[in-house]
Amino acid sequence: MPQAIRFHQTGGPEVLQWESIEVPPPAAGEAQVRHHAVGLNYIDTYHRTGLYPVPLPSGIGLEGAGVVEAVGEGVSDLAPGDRVAYAGGPLGAYAQLRNMPADRLVKLPEALSFEQGAAMMLQGLTAQYLLRRTYRVQPGDTILIHAAAGGVGLIVCQWAKALGATVIGTVGSDEKAALARAHGCDHPIVYTREKFAERVREITGGAGVPVVYDSIGADTFMDSLSCLRPLGTMVLFGAASGPVPPFDIGLLAKMGSLFLTRPTLFTYTARREDLLAMAGELFDAVISGKVKIEVNQRYPLADAAQAHRDLEARRTTGSTILLP
């Protein structure tokens, strides 16, 4: 029987269990995928801890790449043998074999490996909507991205640089600063010893930036707002340090008529035509060399608990994959 990681209660990494699962033939509208690689993402820890509640017991994981083994009734644009990748629900990517809604699968170009596919779909599609849709970065813009040496961060740094932007990024160490700089970050700020809001103002000559991309949440939110120029856009797309507490939205007026958005990938990819267009732009960016996908950690899928420990301890950089 195929194996998968499941959890029966919320908590620390120790709740993740390696179990045998039953995988029935794909139903109408589904495709059965045998994974060659699975992506690890910070949102997985939100599901595991209960920050984002899910019905239990549950599978876990939102991203994978592999080969279609069978298709259900009504599936006409996929066939057994197709190389595919995906990012998004339903949960359950931490598995050797699973059934997926066929309309959530994207064919993976031959020029891209399964490891690249599993490492870049969620993070790369997130970078795509951040840079091209939530706030469309223009040549000459100066942007701020938190966690610049993380999976999304490294992609955003490279892509924004290719778009002609100046990139400011926060990181937690000198090693991560060097990594971010090597991927297009013009001004890495080590937040453990520098106040990033003050540095952003210095770098921009007091003007501030038109956009902040913040996946940290509680620890950075207010200082992120203070980095923005009037009419700037605050993009809160994660909560690695915890959710942002309630605040007086009148602050947005006082700080310069700021815009605030809390986007999710699932909204941006809800329509299949949008998913295909976004994936196509991402694949082109990677195949052209504008964006390099760095798989810096690999773990056996059965060792997912250790991967979560390392991710939460900020011991990882770039993308991490789990190998079934």
Automatic annotation (TrEMBL):
Stored PROSITE patterns: QOR_ZETA_CRYSTAL
SMART domains listed in its UniProt record: PKS_ER
Species assigned in the record: Thauera sedimentorum
Keyword annotations from UniProtKB, A to Z: NADP, Oxidoreductase
InterPro entries: ADH-like_C, ADH-like_N, ER, GroES-like_sf, NAD(P)-bd_dom_sf, QOR-like, Quin_OxRdtase/zeta-crystal_CS
Keyword Transport: no
Keyword field contains GTP-binding: no
CDD domains: QOR2
Pfam family of the protein (one): ADH_zinc_N
Domain Enoyl reductase (ER): residue ranges: 11-322
Name of the featured protein: Quinone oxidoreductase
